[in-house]
Every structure is written in structure tokens, then in C-alpha cells.
């Protein structure tokens, strides 16, 4: 009987396909430096196309993944961002950038590229050498307000009786504008524009911000562990770390 010569070829193709599927790599990151709030774009291959399934760290510090595909991710550097490589984890696969991100810059004159994403907000008088979200002087400067909601919160349940959640934001913007006008002696004001609908986020509220109740809950958990004579040092350390995380993330 003649041996079927096509079988080794099929086996080779299958093996190569499996290898390519398992590979993940980072080609570039940008920008290569910035402060907390910087939006970093990561380009490469093999990322999970469901953006929230990718875990990304910068210099060992956790980031927030805001969008992405199998070849591109966009993340926000958080308060504790540190200098170091960018690492993407997707299940058991890990990719590390050859480029180093550097925590660097100043908060005295924040730029759209650092804090608000220049694709969303461009302040009055935007030039290549003056990239402020809002000029120190100038009336009716355009500011875009993006309404977002965590997956576990319905903004309408928090709105005052007889109003919508979107309408309840308007007085706060007016109050902010009054502050701008009064402190600048009517030389600075904003023209706010809100997105028509609330944009749903993929995570729950405590992924994006923690409140005093989260700190209280973490403190209570630590108190319980400290009073337990059978608690191990590992359990105590874990409870302490959770409390520190809650205090650091409270905004």
C-alpha cells in the first residue's frame, strides 16, 4: 500500500497555525513617557480582541484598558504608574515591550495627550506649542464632557426626582463655570458640550474609583483579621494591602 504523502503537509500546517495562535508580542508603545492619566497606545500581535480580557502593567503598575483589538490596545496610566516596560498578559501568554515607559512630566500645564486624550478635547488656541485643555484666559472655550457609567450602576436611579441623570449634571457644570468666571474676573469661561447618551463601561464602579465606603469595608476586614487569633501573617498582610489599595484608589 502506498503511503499518503499529503498527511505530513497537513500536520505541518496545523502545527504552524497553533504556534502562530499562541504567539503574542509588543512592537511599539507611545508615548514613551508621561504622568498618571496618560493614554498609552500599545501595538503588537496576539492580544485578546476583547479589550477587558487583557491585563496590562506599566513598570509593574496596573493600568486601565479602555479599548483595543488583537493588534492594538489603549490603556490609561494610573496614579502609581512607574518607569519600566509595558507588559501585556492574556491568559497564560505574556508579552513585554523592549521600549521603557518613563514616568516624566509636569502637572502644572497638563496637555490633552497626557490627561484627556487629544482625540476628544482640543482647547481654544490649540497650537503645536500650546496644548492646554483650557486656556488661562478666553471666554466660551469648548469642553467636551463624556458621560460614562460602570456596569453595576444605573445613573437614572441616582438622579433627583423629576430629572434625568444627564440633566442632573448640568447644574454642576454651571457651578464650575461660575468658579472659572469669578476667579478670573470674567476673563475665563467654558462652553460645555455633553455626549447625548451615557457610554457603558465594561467594569463595575470600584474598578474605576473607590469611595469612603470601600475604605471602611477594607478597614473592617483588617480589624476582623487582627482580632482573629488563628489569622496567619499572610492573611494579615493581604488585608493590609487591600486597605492601602482602597486608600490609594479613592478619588
- Summed up, the domain count is 3
Sheet with most strands: strand arrangement = 1-3-6-5-4-7-8-2
Structural class: alpha/beta
As a percent range, the share of strand residues is 25-35%
Termini Cα gap: 75 Å
Which geometry do the CA atoms define?
globular
Helix content: 25-40%
Q: Over the alpha carbons, how many angstroms does the gyration radius reach?
A: 24 Å
Count of individual beta strands: 12
> What is the makeup of the main sheet?
8 strands, mixed
Q: Which regions contain 5 or more consecutive residues with pLDDT less than 50?
A: 4-21, 107-132
- Summarize model confidence as the mean pLDDT: 78
CATH superfamily of the largest domain: Immunoglobulins
Provide a descriptive summary of the structure in words.
This protein has 251 residues and is of the alpha/beta class. It folds into three domains: 24-103, Immunoglobulin-like, CATH 2.60.40; 122-200, no CATH class; 209-249, no CATH class. Helices cover 31% and strands 28% of the residues. It has six helices and twelve strands. The strands form three sheets. An eight-stranded mixed β-sheet has the order 1-3-6-5-4-7-8-2. It has a two-stranded parallel ribbon with strand order 9-11. The protein has a two-stranded parallel ribbon with strand order 10-12. Helix 5 packs antiparallel against helix 6. The longest helix is centred in the last third of the chain and has 19 residues, at 165-183. 14% of the residues are buried. The model is unreliable at 4-21 and 107-132 (pLDDT under 50).
